[in-house]
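Supplementary Methods S3. Complex input for the FE2/S2 (inorganic) cluster-bound model.
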Amino acid sequence: MKDTLIDIFIMDKHYRVPASLTIMRAFEYAGYKMIRGAGCRGGFCGACATVYRMTGDNKLYVALACQSVAQDGMRLAQIPSFPANKTRYDLAALDANGARLLELYPELGLCKGCNTCTKACPQDLQVMEYVGAALRGEVARAADLSFDCIACGLCTARCPGELAPYNIALLARRLYGAYLAPRSPHLAKRVAEIRAGKWDATVRELKALPVDELKKRYNAREIEK
Ligand code: FES
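Predicted complex, serialized as structure tokens:
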């Protein structure tokens, strides 16, 4: 059956595209080559942050272009990459003290509590909540609330206080992972084995396999219960 066509506007230019396409596929159908602003195409990398309005509606909406289906009347633009504040730090020289978050990101104190970041998040995360937790030095809570962040940067693009919530959350998750998360004895054992070269021959063998054989082995692998 033939797909119905819908009207969309990309950077104000009119295109007719099949109704079933994601925004990313609609861009491509319209002739745009996604060299930037596309990565995993599966909703994980955050590269495809997109803003749009609907014709006749003054609200600004956000979406991940690879995850959202294009709608009739969409007026679309992708957000070009812009550098957000990312403090440089040596994780090994830090500690679990939650005050490190405010020390390394003093702009946390500029949060106006407007909740625009939360509204901008295509993952529906409680961004302002985790910013608040970070401000209070609650590392574990900030890490937990931001766990599904894919760093698309839409919160940063919209924040009137010019915070980069996703980078602050990344520090919280790193601190949590380095200093607060319970240690896994299995992981420590496996890392020691890797360091001792126990798996070198296996990795070499896997790397030499044809893709089909690799897929076969992957599908037949033993899954830990
Ligand atoms: S391309 Fe990776 S999230 Fe959309």
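Residues 165-180 form the longest helix (16 residues). Residues 193-217 form one domain.
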